[in-house]
TrEMBL record:
PROSITE patterns: CNMP_BINDING_3, CRAL_TRIO. Signal peptide: none annotated. It holds the Pfam family CRAL_TRIO. Residues 54-219 form the CRAL-TRIO domain. Residues 71-113 form the Cyclic nucleotide-binding domain. One of its GO terms (cellular component) is membrane. Gene3D superfamilies: Alpha-tocopherol transfer (1.20.5.1200), CRAL-TRIO lipid binding domain (3.40.525.10). GO terms for molecular function: phosphatidylinositol bisphosphate binding. It comes from the Eukaryota. This is GM13594.
Length: 274
């Protein structure tokens, strides 16, 4: 019994957590608990705007800020998401708004993409066209915090975060942002100004035409994404009622400071920046 926890309990979601926990019921319960407990300490992302009809969510999708790259069914490689950091108006959207939409597709990936569970997933941060203002708006602590949540709580395998097309003028300074990431995650992060770097991570033919690939256009991909999100309408409506309330927790917090990037109270632990 977990009176502090109200969690989704469909066969689909339970099987995902069980599979990631090697079918240990106790480990699966702990993973589900951590999933909701860590969401609760990132309220700027996990809030009442995570709905499929939210105008901000739809606008971000239609702008092509986030691209979930479709792989062939027989492909067993990692799932791939491209985030185009220079493609949105920073006066209109905060980076947390972009991460919020990314979190929704992350959960869809968790529920239906076997590749993400078995082979993991990659995030490509395309920095084409970014300015100093864009970099300042990146909210590095939020990026680091959300990455830690994805690593600790999601029943998927985070394989890497790769920043590509970083303007050479910013490359040295940008690498200092790596100091925000905990050690284990930092090892999976790369920074490059080389426009060809994306092909080292993703087979070229999977990419949209704008990236030199042959998987349709970015507009085709965003239309597919919007349709996919719409099919999860009831799921995200239900998610508004799920979560963890530590005030009702009977056992000690599972946020062991020796194992977690979060402190006992759920606050994100600070790291020394090189």
């Amino acid at each position: 019994s977990s009176p502090h926890l109200c969690a989704v309990s469909t066969d689909q979601s339970c099987s995902v957590f069980l599979g990631e926990s090697k079918f240990s019921l106790e480990r699966a319960k702990q993973k589900i608990d951590r999933f909701y407990s860590l969401q609760a300490v990132i309220p700027e992302v996990f809030n009442d705007q995570r709905l499929v009809d939210n105008e901000q969510v739809l606008e971000i999708i239609r702008l092509g800020v986030i691209l979930r790259i479709p792989l062939d069914k027989e492909d067993t490689g990692p799932a791939v998401t491209i985030i185009r950091a220079g493609s949105y108006d920073i006066n209109k959207f905060k980076f947390q708004d972009i991460i919020r939409v990314g979190s929704m597709f992350g959960e869809i990936m968790m529920l239906e993409d076997d590749n993400a569970s078995v082979s993991g997933y990659l995030e490509i941060m395309d920095m084409s066209g970014v300015t100093g203002a864009n970099l300042f708006a990146l909210q590095p602590q939020l990026l680091s915090k959300f990455s830690a949540y994805a690593d600790e709580a999601m029943p998927t395998r985070q394989k890497g975060i790769h920043f590509i097309n970083v303007p050479k003028a910013f490359e040295t300074g940008f690498k200092s942002l790596l100091g925000w990431f905990p050690g284990k995650i930092k090892e999976r992060v790369s920074v490059s100004s080389d426009p060809e770097a994306i092909f080292e991570r993703v087979p070229k033919h999977y990419l949209p035409e704008e990236y030199g690939g042959s998987k349709g256009t970015m507009k085709d991909i965003t239309a597919q994404m919007e349709a996919k999100l719409s099919s999860y309408r009831s799921y995200f409506e239900d998610c508004q009622h799920f979560g963890a309330n530590d005030k009702l927790r009977e056992e000690a917090s599972l946020l062991n400071p020796d194992e977690s990037h979060f402190g006992l109270d759920g606050s994100f632990r600070q790291f020394v920046i090189d």
